[in-house]
Amino acid sequence: MMTDKMDNDMTEYKVDFFLSAAECNAQQEISLPLLAQRLIDISTAHASAIGVGYEHLLKDNNAWVLSRLSIELTRFPSINKPYSLVTWVEDLNRHYSERIVELRDDLGEAIGYGRLTWVAINIVSRRPADLTPLLHKVTPSNRRCPIERHPRLGSIGIPDHVTMYKFQYSDIDFNRHVNSTRYIQFILDRWGVSHYDLNRVSRFDISYHAEAHFEDVVEVRCKGDEETQDVEIARDGVVCTRARIKFCPRSLPIIPVKN
Q: 6 vs 10, 12, 85, CA distance in Å?
């Protein structure tokens, strides 16, 4: 369930949601992959509303591609509660757009932020596109985002743990490559339910480097400690994504109810 609203000068775009039980994880909160998808969706909707969306770029064989995503939260929206997302463009040039999304709880209090870096490419040449003719349509906001910019994620070296995965039908999106949020799911599955009962994700960063496709076999490589893990997902030696996930202890551990 959602409703959307844009301010008068079109610099900010707001969408209200209600978190149903079907959208929750085992901790009765919004799942991180769903939240990431919501950030992508509101970014797409605002871009379309101001005339620089997918349908506008496609006229010149161009498209937006998500390059980097960072999410930092003080807490997650919880089951059967409304929450809101507000987005604005913080920075842009002829090749990329840096977009911010603020997450608000049911009382309107900011409880987290997302940073998304979108790069424009030509879908024929697969080279960076020039968006100069569209820049006049976008007014960056004067609001600053309080979370740090995306870190530079390098090779993790020798991993502590490696798992293999073969991409299936449900991993593939309309572009016929692996959906951006599926990588997040693979990373979260590195830990069990009891870990998330005691800890929550405080910060998540991911960068996208190469596409993966149906029936590609990848290595999920992890290295780190209980608080921070660096992750690479690679196929045939080519890194598809790099990520960093940070945990913090829950103030009140979740005790599962046994039926």
A: 6, 6, 12
